[in-house]
Structures are given as structure tokens and as C-alpha cells.
Design a protein that fits this description.
Number of helices: 6
Shape: globular
Number of strands: 10
Helix content: 25-40%
Structural class: alpha+beta
Distance between the termini: 19 Å
Radius of gyration: 19 Å
Order of helices and strands: HEEEEEHHHEEEEEHH
Strand order of the largest sheet: 5-10-9
Largest sheet: 3 strands, antiparallel
């Protein structure tokens, strides 16, 4: 209800419903007994004390931007996800937009971005790097204060496709290659690209488990098929929601 526009409120709501659905189905916790909390940096986590030890590292993350809300989840390793819609900057040229964002990427990354043959392809590569960095930051839960220039990605597959999953991007932290991390990238359609960061296990001597899987698109009916209302309905909430504009014009 804090969102100004309906579109943003619906995107956030879908994220909440996706989290509760996947947690309930994977852990067998009753839907309405799932306890979600956030770390100091704002990352959601599962806080049920009754969980079996094998389920206490269950990691999940959501992202919503453009026309999609996405979720990634893993039972053993840290996971972060980010989705971005490629758009032209609203109040600037592409070079001007890049100039305002110059501190967010390394010299190598800017070279990769600006070497693309058209402004649109440069924007796609810009948002691809942004997805990668955000997915890592969200997986670690360190928040937006992280020094993004300490995080560098080297792209090996230049073009992403909705029909394929790309897993060969190299990750460097403070100039050291971190091969224990894995990044899975794809496009959801011609405009939206998404990155999933899969990190080291959070428990000692636990074998990493990277399972390659593509996103599955769900309809609203699928998302709420096992839902149980958490609170009584309030007619005033619906009236307030209906009074909001759909999106920023």
C-alpha cells in the first residue's frame, strides 16, 4: 500500500507471493506459517525455528523491473537475482547517461559496453552488467553501499537469447577471479534480461550444488493456487488501491 502506482504495488505483491509459494512447496511448511524476516541490509530470509537442519540454508531472492517479477531459489548456496528492461534514458543522451554512471563500472567493463556496434546494443550491455552486479550484491546481502568498482565481470558470450542460458561470464572481486561463484544469464524477451548469482555454500564442508534450470512463467492463478489468507480482508485497502494510477506517465 506504500507504493504510489498500481504497477509497482502489483510487482511487489507478486514477489511476496512467489517467495511464500516456493518456500511452502519446497520446505513443506504450511503456507500461512512461513515466517519471513529481513537482514539489516534488507535481504529476506526464512526464520522458522522448526526447520530441519538441511533446510536452514534455503536461499531465495526476487527482483522486479519492467514487465516482470522474477524469483530464484537454491537449497544449499547463496542466490541473488536481478532483472532489467533495456530502455533509452528519458532525459539524457546515451553518452550523457553513461557519463552519470561512470563510477559504477570498471574501465574494462566500460570498454566492453562501448565497443558494441549501436547505442541500443551498448544499452543492452550496460544493463547486462548492471544485472550481474546487482545479482551478486543481492546474493551476498551486503546492500547498495558495496563498492561496485571492486566487482568486475568479463563477458565471453556477447549475445544473450531467450532460448539459451549463458554461464561462461567470469567474475573478479578486487581483481581476483572468484571461480567458486557461478552466474547464469538469459533474456526473458527482446527487452528484459536477467542474471542469477549462485555463490559458495554457507555451511562448512558442504558440497556445492549448481543445478541449471530455466525460468518458468507462472500465471497469477498458479501463484495463488496454494495460498492461504494471512489476514482478514479490508475493504478500505481495496478502495485505496483502486484509487491509485496504474503507472507513472
Amino acid at each position: 500500500m506504500k507504493f504510489v502506482f498500481k504497477k509497482d504495488a502489483k510487482s511487489a505483491l507478486i514477489g511476496r507471493l512467489l517467495m511464500r509459494k516456493v518456500i511452502s512447496e519446497f520446505t513443506q511448511l504450511p503456507y500461512n506459517e512461513v515466517i519471513l524476516k529481513r537482514t539489516e541490509k534488507g535481504k529476506p530470509y526464512l526464520a522458522n525455528d522448526s526447520l530441519e537442519p538441511s533446510l536452514r540454508n534455503f536461499s531465495f531472492n526476487i527482483s522486479h523491473q519492467g514487465d516482470f517479477t522474477v524469483l530464484a531459489a537454491e537449497p544449499l548456496v547463496q542466490v541473488g537475482v536481478d532483472v532489467m528492461k533495456t530502455t533509452y534514458p528519458g532525459s539524457s543522451t546515451v553518452p550523457g547517461f553513461f557519463n552519470t554512471m561512470r563510477k559504477q563500472f570498471t574501465s574494462y567493463e566500460w570498454q566492453t559496453i562501448k565497443s558494441q556496434t549501436t547505442e541500443w546494443k551498448q544499452l543492452e550491455m550496460f544493463y547486462r552488467h548492471w544485472c550481474l552486479k546487482e545479482s551478486y550484491v543481492k546474493a551476498t546481502g551486503v546492500g547498495i553501499g558495496h563498492d561496485l568498482q571492486a566487482v568486475e565481470f568479463q563477458i565471453n558470450t556477447n549475445e544473450l537469447s531467450p532460448q539459451a542460458l549463458t554461464c561462461d561470464t567470469q567474475f573478479f572481486l578486487d581483481e581476483n577471479e572468484m571461480d567458486e561463484w557461478r552466474f547464469e544469464e538469459t533474456k526473458l524477451d527482446d527487452w528484459h534480461q536477467v542474471a542469477v548469482a549462485l555463490g559458495p555454500s554457507r555451511t562448512i564442508n558442504e558440497e556445492k550444488s549448481f543445478r541449471i534450470s530455466k525460468f518458468k512463467e507462472l500465471q497469477f492463478a498458479d501463484i495463488v493456487s496454494s495460498a492461504i489468507p494471512l489476514f482478514p480482508e479490508e475493504e478500505s485497502d481495496w478502495v485505496a488501491f483502486q484509487s491509485k494510477k496504474e503507472k507513472n506517465q
